[in-house]
Please model this.
Amino acid sequence: MSILVSIIFIPIIGALILFFVPNWKTQLIKNIALNVSCLNFLMSLLLWIYFDHSTAKFQFSQTIYSESLSFTIAIDGISLFFIILTTFLVPVCILVGWKTISNYVKEYCIAFLILETLMIAVFCMLDLLLFYVFFESVLIPMFIIIGVWGSRERKIRAAYQFFIYTLFGSIIMLLGILIIYLQTGTTDYQILYTTEFSEKRQIIIWATFFASFAVKVPMIPVHIWLPEAHVEAPTAGSVILAGILLKLGTYGFLRFSIPLFPYASMYFTPLLYTMSIIAIIYTSFTTIRQVDLKKIIAYSSVAHMNIVIIGLFSMNSIGIEGSIMLMLSHGIVSPALFLCVGVLYDRYKTRLCRYYGGCVHTMPIFCILFCLFTMANIALPLTANFVGELLVFQGVFCNNTLVAFLSATSMICSGGYSLLAYGRVAYGSCKPYYIRSFSDLSRREFFMFIPFVVVTLWLGVTPQCFLDAMHCSVANILNI
Model:
């Protein structure tokens, strides 16, 4: 059994073990789930250790045969880091609920382990139809996580909104896959990569894929589900939603839309530039007006993911590599910010900025970490987001100076809303009329933040070790 197959099946095996553990043994359930997810993270690091940076070929390939189906799973320099990011965040999600989740603990751990398997399968699947199956299957455990363990009374509405928005777009994508199958007789990605589609058919199929991926990104005007889902989801749900699920749409564009339909991708580039710039400016100004900390981070995620779209459709290696780096850095920084909000909510049971103030006096360690991740969200040099945004703007500038200038306004806007939110929480006078008990980070919370600090600075200081691994794969997509 290859390493990749093991990484897919370890969480499922852990979930099956948890089925046979009695519900009242909550500590044992948490320990098993945490150990299984940590083992999977260590296994995923082996992929990076044994990965050959000098080739664009798919590696760790494993073809699975059955009576009615055969498909291949493999990874390249693009999907490698998304698998590692997935296995990194799932143990964090289990740790987040260590003290705060008291109802349905076994189901909570099983949901995240199943979700981990489905997300890993999305990133390593080389069959277009099965990619669609796993792409949609991710909705089921996420729907349950938001609906069952959400923190407010509108959680059921938010869960249905998340499910319906994303499912409706993906049904249109299924029609595109059917058109591909009727023309080629296969949904194998490696065969489709060498297949020529007519210009008219490329435009039609690309549009069906766009309907699905745009909702997942999300792009305006189909972004409404994201702030609602983030606000109503538990902290762990927001972590996995911001860290991985938002990347599925941009990964789909990069893996399928750009290499399989190059003419259509160039044809629709002006439309995508326009939609992305509108999204960046609109959501940035909307973010400044928000009073809920989770909505501030959610709207800023929309802006950052639309910067990723601009980088992807710059159609050069600098812009695409910058987009991948920005996806990875956003997958670290945004979950860290949601963890910060979760720490505040666990103590004060509110996320509204008006009830906070003076936390720097009562929670100094927390405020230092919150400040670091806020600076990273602004793309301060030597932090993760800076490298990604710099490469994206450099790649776009080679194609269109005006688009580069307009999209770069996001750096000014992100500085405004990020510093405003941090100032409301950390500075000013304490408000004992609203909040009567104060406590800094616990030991569990502190050590939960340390890996995020390390990776944020690592991505910002030494990005070359990440860029080297993805360079050949990006060049292959562009046929360089």
The beta strands are 59-65, 70-75. Residues 3-477 form one domain. The chain has a mean pLDDT of 88. The first strand starts at residue 59 and ends at 65.
